[in-house]
Specification:
- The chain is mostly beta strands and 721 residues long.
- It has a domain of 169 residues.
- 12% of the residues lie in helices and 32% in strands.
- It is built from 12 helices and 37 strands.
- A hairpin with a 3-residue loop joins strand 18 and strand 19.
- The longest helix has 16 residues.
């Protein structure tokens, strides 16, 4: 008998197992995650030499998947089903499946406790989270040993959560007006251990394997809540892994196959194509069964007192705003059947003037997609559809909003194979491709007329985030976007690259550029668009995919002679998009920035300051580094005017919280604070950072006593009177 294992069946790494006998949610105990030295992401497995039996029948991963698929529906029908929480960290990988399936809970727990004393190399385990015995000990009174590894790598490992509320020791002084809650969300679980049997020398032995989520955007979410009280100068903290049931399913099925498009960004599901096909029809979701970790909202108009998390699919996970417990998951078409589609945008926009929340859903079809833009408000909690636009099936991370318009930007990172792979739930980066010969398209939707009025074009590029947009007196829309030359940055942010910086290709993160696009002569171009909506190009010499794009762009107008050509596109263009008006642009800020923030009171209007994550001077020229600074830029002066940086520290998004207006006091645009969760790699600990947004000076810090993984997700806040 061969003892060779099919390596394609398993992804193996270094992570704690999940305890199937652990107490349920109501009886949850604090858990923590190790500060591992080196994380092995190779496909290997560790046999348990203590457990063996004569080989009776070969057991394959496909057999286990089939059994898991048959039992899944039965498990999901149990409304009161308890799910397991992650067990204590760094439990031994040498677990005997036959043993733990036959012992009682007490014996199993005792075995796990003994195993957890040593790691896989026989060394003592080290916990990276505050245990209950020290949860209330001021952080600055604990002994903290500096780590020789000061890279960002430890910010991309699993995190634990705790049912306890922790009182943090505040260093410095919070502003007295800063009273409320600050919420963040990001990856909390990258790796899930599971057990399986393998054949060695004619015997079945137990082995521990690990399924790993392959991209920064795919890690299962950890929600964080900070209660800030400036008058008392106190901060309390609690967190929660918000999809434990899904963690359990991953453990049982040895992988994860989403049942809808946009369920994964770039992860090998470790499941057969048959499983993906069978699960393509959506089922009723459990509250903690869907990963919603791209953004957390302190509220949606029309629904008071709730907390909501969103993902790239069309899911909204409702969380309790106090203990972060998931209460339900719904899709946008459950809010209103007109909001149909399997995918959506995690970064919807708020209009502070009208009180509307505006977003869209994507109804994916062969070679084309309908983008249904809708609004929800306190006056109309069920919402209404503003307009629907037929456009290429693109990856849309965000969009722009002005008082009169919505601007949907489709970069040439488009679904390939006629969007069939995307519709069959493949990872986004496995079902999309970047087409450098095709333009970036700007679809302008009139909020007043409720229709798509004109489409502009510009040079091919890629972006995650829009910064802001506003109208000017020249009948133009200005759209500020953090752009990249192509999709390289999306491929660089894989778990493998972030954990092994030396493997990143290219070795440095792709540089970004803050561009201001100008969509000129909106009224004139929209009239031309409407009068020429029967224009169709010849399909001669045009691929069927590009030809189909004309169905989205029918009626595109001729470029106005007044429109300035794009700076980098000085030559005359030709082809199917040549007749579209041009969106000119210029670079506002050159240094690489990401996760932009502006004062939310200055959204949809001309503004001066933008904040974001950037690079220190040393890291900007070093290989394998990520953002390690918080930067303030002056959009009028086109320069960086201030920044915060501390050695060996890596911030997540810095959320701008504006100072509340008091009486007739006139507030400046930069009157507020920036709040960020920062990893201090040398101390192997995260801390909450509060900066003065005007001077970028530190106002206060509070150590969390644990590592909170670095996040690309968007946070929010709720101030109290």
């Amino acid at each position: 008998m061969s003892d060779k294992l099919d390596e394609s069946a398993v992804l193996v790494g270094e992570e704690h197992p999940l305890n199937p006998h652990h107490e349920g949610q109501d009886g949850a105990k604090p858990t923590s995650n190790p500060l591992e030295d080196d994380f092995d992401t190779k496909q290997t497995m560790e046999p348990d030499e203590t457990s063996s039996e004569p080989l009776k029948e070969p057991i394959t991963l496909k057999d286990q998947e089939s059994k898991a698929d048959i039992s899944e529906d039965k498990e999901e029908d149990k409304e009161d089903e308890e799910y397991a929480e992650p067990a204590d960290p760094l439990q031994s990988s040498r677990l005997d499946v036959s043993a733990y399936s036959n012992v009682n809970d007490d014996a199993w727990a005792q075995q796990q406790q003994e195993n957890s004393l040593l790691d896989d190399e026989g060394l003592p385990n080290v916990t990276g989270s505050a245990s209950p015995s020290i949860a209330n000990t001021p952080v600055n009174e604990r002994t903290v040993e500096l780590d020789s590894d000061t890279s960002h790598v430890k910010g991309f490992r699993n995190a634990g959560d705790s049912s306890e509320i922790m009182d943090l020791q505040v260093s410095g002084q919070l502003p007295e007006w800063l009273i409320g809650e600050h919420y963040t969300i990001g990856p909390g679980t990258y790796d899930v251990r599971y057990m399986r049997k393998i054949e060695i020398d004619g015997h079945l032995q137990s082995a521990t394997c690990t399924f790993s989520f392959g991209h920064w955007f795919d890690g299962l979410p950890l929600a964080n809540r900070f209660d800030l009280n400036g008058k008392r100068n106190t901060i309390t903290y609690r967190n929660r892994l918000t999809c434990r049931r899904l963690i359990e399913k991953v453990r049982d099925h040895h992988g994860y196959a989403p049942r809808h498009p946009a369920g994964l960004f770039k992860t090998d599901s470790n499941q057969t194509m048959l499983v993906k096909f069978i699960k393509s029809q959506p089922k009723t979701n459990k509250a903690d069964g869907e990963p919603c970790g791209a953004r957390i909202l302190a509220g949606i108009p029309g629904i008071d007192g709730r907390l909501f998390a969103q993902n790239f699919a069309n899911h909204i996970q409702e969380l309790d705003p106090f203990d972060l417990k998931p209460t339900r998951v719904l899709c946008w078409d459950e809010v209103n059947p007109a909001f149909r589609g399997y995918s959506s945008c995690p970064n919807g926009q708020f209009d502070p003037r009208t009180g509307e929340y505006i977003n869209f859903t994507m109804e994916i079809g062969y070679q084309s997609t309908r983008y249904h833009f809708f609004s929800i408000s306190d006056r109309d909690p069920k919402g209404t559809v503003i307009a629907s636009v037929t456009a290429p099936t693109g990856y849309v991370h965000s969009f722009s909003l002005t008082p009169r318009y919505i601007v949907l930007v489709i970069f040439p990172l488009l679904a390939n194979s006629g969007a069939v792979k995307f519709a069959w739930n493949e990872s986004i980066m496995d079902s999309f491709a970047f087409y450098p010969s095709e333009p970036t398209l700007f679809y302008v939707i009139s909020r007043e007329k409720g229709q798509h009025i004109v489409t502009y074009r510009s040079d091919p590029c890629f972006a995650f985030h829009h910064v802001n947009a506003f109208e000017d007196d020249n009948d133009s829309i200005n759209v500020d976007i953090i752009t990249y030359r192509d999709e390289t940055i999306a491929n660089q942010l894989t778990t493998e690259n972030l954990r092994n910086p030396a493997s990143m290709q290219p070795p440095r993160l792709a540089p970004s550029e803050v561009r201001r696009y100008v969509l000129s002569c909106i009224d004139e171009e929209s009239i031309s668009f409407m009068t020429k909506n029967t224009l169709m190009p010849s399909t001669s010499g045009v691929t069927s995919r590009i030809s189909s794009m004309w169905s989205y762009l029918r009626g595109s107008s001729n470029a106005s002679s007044d429109v300035e050509r794009s700076e980098t596109n000085s030559t005359q263009v030709s082809g199917w998009y040549a007749s579209l008006p041009v969106a000119s642009y210029r670079a506002i800020v050159q240094p690489s920035l990401e996760l932009p923030q502006v004062n939310p009171l200055y959204k949809m209007q001309k503004y001066q300051y933008m904040y974001g994550l950037g690079f220190s001077a040393a890291n900007s020229i070093a290989d394998g580094k990520i953002w390690d600074s918080i930067v303030k830029t002056d959009m009028e002066r086109k320069s960086v005017v201030a920044s915060w940086h501390e050695e060996n520290c890596y911030p997540s998004e810095a959320v701008f919280i504006p100072r509340p207006a008091e009486g007739d006091l006139e507030l400046k645009e930069d009157d507020g604070v920036l709040v960020s969760v920062v990893l201090d790699s040398a101390r192997a600990m995260s801390f909450l950072l509060i900066l003065d947004a005007s001077t970028m000076e530190v106002l206060a810090k509070a150590d969390l006593g644990m590592i909170v993984p670095i996040s690309f997700g968007r946070g929010s806040y709720r101030l109290r009177s």
